[in-house]
Amino acid sequence: MKKRLLGNWNGGRLWWATFFCALTAVSTTAATTWADGGEQRWSRTPKSPWVKIVKETCKSVVSIQGEKQGAVGQRGAARCEVYNGMGAGVVVDERGYILTNYHVVKGLLKLEVVTADGERYRDVELIRNDVATDLAILKIKPKSPMKKIRMGRSELVELAEEVYAIGNPFGYDGSVTRGIVSALGRPLEVSDALAYDSMIQTDAPINPGNSGGPLVNIDGEMIGLNAAVREEAENIAFAIPIDVVSEVAERMIRQSVAKMTHHGLKFRVIDAEAPEYPADGNGEDCLLVESVEAKSPAAQAGIEPGDVLVSSNGFEVRSSLDFTCSLIGMDLTDVAELRVQRDGETKETLVAFSDLASDRDETFVARKPRRSPVAEEYADAATSVAVAESVDEGLTTADFAGSEKAPTPSSFEGSKRASQVWRVLGVEVETTSPEEYRERYPKLQAVSIGDFNFAPNGGVTVTRAVKNGLLTGGDARVQEGDLIFGFGVGDSKEGQLSVASLDNLYYIAQKKEEFARLDGGKARVYLIRGDRAYFLEIDLNR
Fold first, then answer.
1. What pTM does this model have?
2. How far is CA 488 from CA 16, 234, 255, 495, 532, in A?
3. Which residue, 32, 38, 412, 490, shows the most beta carbons closer than 10 Å to its own?
């Protein structure tokens, strides 16, 4: 009975509130009619500029839903139950790359992304996560290009400025709340394993499900990613600053789906108030080339410090994240088409990420640049690999059948091992000792490629290459004079093997079929050509 009365009372309050509003509206209309001498005229209070800003920003926000398993009950009587998990994410690339908090998707079963227009995507891929900052990149395959979020800059965020939080609190997707920036630079310890150095504190109401959604300023720019709320407190919530968000997102994308493309450029975002802002700029932030690495692909393409990068591969560019996203899915043998502004003029140039195509019949720079490439990320290898001692096996002359004449056993060390390396991999090599390596490559004692760091301890130098070997055919293009120092399968550190001698190459040749069953048959060869380090992707099933 009590519940029923409460229900009726709530219904009564709702009804009275509605009636009061309706009565007020009628009275206002009547007053307006009387004041105008009987002539009826309708008027409406102008909408707040926030309405349009939030409406546009919501198009870049998605809801993330799924199920999680957890223990319920006291120790000794706990049981495992499945419960709903929820959060939000922001679109950082129109091809379906979404940024969110890692804790939103960690352990989530049956992951589903719902876009602002109501489309549901169950084929969701976790591209990469960064535990230290609690960020993650997801990928869906949208039916049409998505609207990416506009990003602001941390240095322009001010205390007490008005902000809106957008997210999926308690499953109410697309919810918007308003507040101000309550504090800047707040340290925050979430758990023993997760702590933030400098957070944005806000009093905008944030609840479970808001995590991964944007904190937006009056210009419609995301200035932070909503991440945490203080329990048993009123209106104390925290967002990760946008500079951290942008930097980590750029790194995760570069390490995962734009990792073939060393360019040698360093950038700085400048605004319309900066002295170096171009005279013909459109009044919005732009990306200034701060430095160009000597002899890098960008330097060879004629890009200079002070240039303003306008677009890359047809994508408008306003940040380092934009630029890295424009290179998603490109191979080492591709070229990127860049448009830059210099002294009031717009110039176009092609950046070639390597000289791998220089030996082909066609001219390298004449190749059509890849526009809007779609990334295909590879799953982690299920099995770790490690260098093992090689075992000699008997070989016969039948092993050398093929279009290329095999080298004679006396032409290089270890005839049996060398013969199989030639037959399987298509290269003849000679060992480069650690001493020779240090003398030849004094600036490459430590090599960073993608997500991996190497300290090469010598290597093998290619002295002859077959035309269509495993390392030399297709897009691989290992060439004479290249120094091979590593081989990789999958994205785990354990799958990256050091190559310091012929024995290591022989081991790879022996394990070729086993490696081909991992990571879809994809592998990498790490090498040095000239004075630069590369990696080439090869197909072990070709």
1. 0.62
2. 70, 51, 14, 6, 18
3. 490
